[in-house]
Design brief:
31% helix; 9 helices; ten-stranded mixed sheet; alpha+beta
Length: 295
């Protein structure tokens, strides 16, 4: 029966790769920081609002929870998340950038900064990630103001941006060519009157009996636009052991292997080459919005 198989379709994450995420690079404002595992100096205390908001988003814009475990009598902070990307970003922000997500309760998220300050963000709304939206947002009250904090796919955030920082586009190209999983981060302030009007509509959408999800999505779309895209994260997901040899043997047996992924084209191509799906002689047809580019 196996000899009758001609086509193999495989997911990328967790199949070709290990689904063990590690934050590798970040970009913020005009700066690109590569290999933040190393002793590179990352400016986390500058006075720029864009820079501060980027680090706020790393520690606040997520659904991670803290699970404390005893460790030789000392309290050890361990993060649990439904998304391994979120856990990787929050853990790295705490361990290597010293912006620590400390805890959350029903209404607040607590953060510790590199200079030892304790910050409290009141969570007003969580606009959850879906495969259609390809982004997630939180509306927070902090320092006397209301803010929308968003992370998501680069094409979704960039097409809705009123401003994009200098390093964003170059870093997306660079990180994608290395096979990294990238996320963009954006924010905008919201006036109290604008928020109250929007939240009234959002609460009605949540309670809608018919077309509930469509009403929620439409309401989110009204708020999630005209933001500042200020930073990018790049998460590494290493290949499974022996994946290169396995794919080679499948192809030698006459099977055609297709990799399914929602990554950027640059990321998908890099992973395909590194796992052996493509070689130096492969001809790649890129089909984008109906246009075919041969590379």
């Amino acid at each position: 029966e196996l000899g009758q198989v001609r086509y193999v379709f495989t997911d990328k994450t967790g199949t070709l790769t290990r689904n063990e995420m590690r934050l590798k690079h970040i970009a913020v404002e005009s700066d690109i920081y590569c290999d933040i595992d190393a002793s590179c100096i990352v400016n986390t205390t500058g006075e720029s609002l864009d820079r501060r908001m980027f680090y706020y988003m790393l520690t606040v814009c997520h659904t991670v929870v803290v699970d404390r475990q005893s460790n030789s009598g000392n309290e050890k902070r361990k993060y649990q998340a439904s998304s391994p990307d979120e856990a990787a970003i929050v853990s790295a922000a705490s361990d290597r950038l010293h912006w620590s997500f400390v805890d959350r309760d029903q209404t607040n998220v607590y953060v510790n900064t590199p200079d030892g300050c304790n910050l409290t963000f009141t969570i007003l709304n969580v606009l959850e990630f879906t495969s259609d939206r390809r982004r997630m947002s939180v509306v927070v009250e902090f320092d006397g103001g209301v803010w929308l904090l968003t992370k998501g796919a680069d094409d979704v955030l960039l097409e809705r941006a009123s401003f994009t920082c200098e390093a964003v586009i170059p870093s997306l190209d660079k990180f994608g060519s290395e096979g990294m999983r990238t996320l963009c981060f954006a924010y905008k302030p919201i006036s109290l009157s604008e928020y109250q009007s929007w939240n009234d509509e959002y609460q009605r959408a949540i309670c809608a009996v018919t077309n509930r999800q469509q009403s929620i999505d439409a309401c989110c779309d009204k708020l999630e636009q005209h933001w500042r895209v200020v930073g990018v994260t790049a998460v590494e997901d290493r290949l499974q052991e022996q994946v290169v040899d396995t794919l080679r043997m499948l192809r030698e047996a006459g099977m055609s292997v297709w990799m399914l992924t929602g990554d950027r084209p640059e990321t998908a191509l890099n992973i395909a080459r590194s796992c052996g799906l493509l070689d130096g002689l492969s001809v790649v047809d890129l089909v984008c919005d109906g246009d075919v580019n041969v590379g």
